[in-house]
Amino acid sequence: MTAPVIAPQRRTRRGSELFLLIFVVLLAAVVSVAIEGALGEGVTPAPLWFAATLALMFGITHVAIRLFAPYADPVLFPLVALLNGLGVALIHRLDLAAAAPNERFKVHFLTGNASLQLAWTAVGLVLLIAVLVIIRDHRSLARYSYTLGLVGLGLLAVPALLPASLSEVNGARIWIRFAGFSIQPGEFAKIAVIVFFASYLVAKRDVLSLASRRIAGIDFPRGRDLGPVVVAWLASLLVLIFEKDLGSSLLFFGIFIVMLYVATQRTSWLLIGLMLFAGGAFVAWTLFAHVQDRVAIWLHPFKDANGKGFQIVQALYGLATGRLFGTGPGAGRPEIVPYANSDFIVATIGEELGLFGLTAILVVYALIVGRGLRTALTVRDSFGKLLAAGLAFSMALQVFVVVGGVTKLIPLTGLTTPFLSYGGSSLVANYVLVGLLLRISDAARRPPASQQAVQPLANAPTEMVRL
Amino acid sequence: MNAPVRRVAVAVLVMFGLLFVNLNYVQFVQADKLRRNDGNKRLLLQTYDRQRGSIVVNGKAVAVSIATNDKLKYLRTYPGGPTYAHVTGYYSLVYGSSAIEKAEDSVLSGDDDRLLIRRVSDLITKGRTPRGGDAVLTLNADAQAMATSLLRGRRGSVVAMDPRSGAILTMVSSPTYDPGPLASHDVAKIRAAWTPLASNLQKPLLNRAIQETYSIGSTMKVIISATALQNGYTPSTQIPAPRTYTPPQTSVPLPNYDGTTCSGTGHQTLADALRVSCNTAFAGLGVKLGADKIKAQAAQFGVGDKLSIPMRVAVSDLGQLADPPQVAQSSIGQRDVRLTPLQNCMVAAAVANNGTLNTPYLVQELDAPGFQPIFRASPTVLHHPMPADVASQLQGMMVGVVDSGTGTQAKVPGFVVGGKTGTAQNGNGSPDHGWFIGFAGKEGEAPPIAIAVVLEQAGRGGSHDASLIAGKVMKAYLDSPAAR
User: Fold this and answer.
1) Which one is catalytic: B97, B98, B184, B218?
2) A358 and B27 in contact by Cβ < 8 A?
3) How far is residue B132's CA from residue B248's CA, in Å, rounded to a whole number?
4) Domain at B245, CATH number
5) Domain tally for chain B?
6) For the complex shown, is ipTM > 0.85?
């Protein structure tokens, strides 16, 4: 341990954040102008209003971060703001495609889905600020872990318990619909459950990392310690069976296994997880027609290119038509793909911004995940580490599953693309997730409260030694 | 706990790496294959984003794209309707395109490289998607309208060209169709319009002028006459014109039309033989000249050439001509002689143009948006089938046919008209095709129009009607203010 006795005064780097946010707003404006130019005969003031709205909302959030989490990671918020801004612009672009050409530019502001998404952005940012204001120390969350765990499971289970008329959309029962609104509780359940996992695993990790048998050079846990992993596995299968939600099922189980691994450092948990996953996947494939359908479409999408394979085939055509540089914003035909603004927004990006644009988006996600994992590495407490790692990995896995599905790398499962897809639940929940990451990163980068009082070696957290 | 977090970071890198590699596979390696897949409508839809150029005849658009309020920005419409259907062709979402729409697609759509510089400057200065270029046709609107109305209710074709240049003045095929509904944006409407056309036994979609070949009957005698005049004969050379002619190597006699006699003496001049269309005289003459000379002369008229006007023209053919009986039958346009109406028009055109055959063409000019020509047709010589003096003799013989022979119906008051009628048997007891080929012009001037008219299975009187139609169409052209 060669840490300096007195840490140098760390800079908050809020100025960098502001600079990056200005760039993000400019980018969203440029893309909107390009879209209008390509779709119409001229440019309306709509992009200006759009950029001004974004600037206002992001500006307020930036000020809140300055006030309530001054040491938070300066890159994280601009990264998600970029995805959010671009997402609204693309949703607006798809709104325009759906409108009759002479109706398109009558209203000089965002309308339809794009205006809703912008409203949801405001809600998400308010919640992000609320997270920063209310949760002044992320460790306080650990106290509510069981409550959050129950709430999470409850949110997850509600759609399965509701009558299908209130919960089913396009075959998946993952919604709660009332009074014209529909929310996907699973998006919020994800965060609650990750908080619960983090707290639970930190508490139990000594037991769970106990080894009893050594097979082929790997320590395997005792049979009775398998309990939690089996419970998580069963819960995932139940989600799959009762809600027909392949994506969430995979997401929850994947997050749990990886957090278990991070908590215990036991590779054996990964192997056990993989085996359970393989078993579960096989059982699901044998039992459920909709799982078989998904696999068949993945293997041979062109067999039924105008039927079941239509969506993925059209997405592939779109990606291929975009090629390296894309058709340009507004110049492609992404609206051919069903659900181009939600599940398949990646295909829209690939078609209009090309391989280069889509790769840039993947890099943005990788940076978000990287910033999250970096926070996990630098924060001092175990709970914070596990929570940050879990939140960051959940983002990585979700992006992998949805982008992999749309590009035919893996079978298609219904998950939203964080911050890009049209949909309030996903957007708001992901802003809460980023709020938590900001809070933890603030703790990680904040210099010790009174530097003189620190007696470095004696008080050094044990985790530091574990390095 | 940091070591496993680092390993998770590596795993995340691998996951994103997989996504990246797969994206490269889809968007780069497989891109062209996927893009060009028939199921990918994007490339087709792209063409509807730009205003397609017009097809123009005598200053009026016969095919024009208009802005719509549909998902597809522009709708193709055909003010020319059925009158120009076989020339413009159709432009359909479902069934692709045909004729000029297909042959000149790169200019009409605006994709042509010759439009590139304009496209870029348009984009910069006007900030809007540029439109396609226009195709100006050689057709004459008055002659085209006349031919269309005269063929209504009949099966057949009228083709006329300017012998002096090769410019096609009339191209009508009947029955015709309306290309408008095929260009609809409503797939159901397109199919509803297409199905009866495609299944119609009268083949309305077929452009008979260039896509169908026919027995040409006695119009073949013009080719035989040209061969004879270049091999020591003159219009006044006496040739045998017996009641029946039995070629060597067979015992089957060949009679005259309706078994009539051509001449009381059993002989007549070459000019008279053509004037009254004597079968026995030309069968004997053909056998005497021999297959090789006839084939060579026909090739000089363009028979056997692969032409694009710019649409592909079906190749005309004389058949084998393997032995004297075949030569005899072929000399009166029967047996395996098969010509397109355009090819037969080219025969008349070569005679009218003093023995020089110009390559037929349909596109006078291609214009970039704003009427700047990027292409202008210039006449090119295809062949020299005969010297000018021979052509002049043959012109005189053909004028005789219209003045006092079988083609008197084709007369146009105030103009010199030459021609040749034909009645072609087409086997298995179905009615004969009626033909007329010819030309018209002012005394002492090169004829500005040559024509071929065919009436499918018109039976007795077919050539009479064909001559009548030819005369009226030529008159319509000669009277037309648009004709130079």
Assistant:
1) B218
2) yes
3) 62
4) 3.40.710.10
5) 1
6) yes
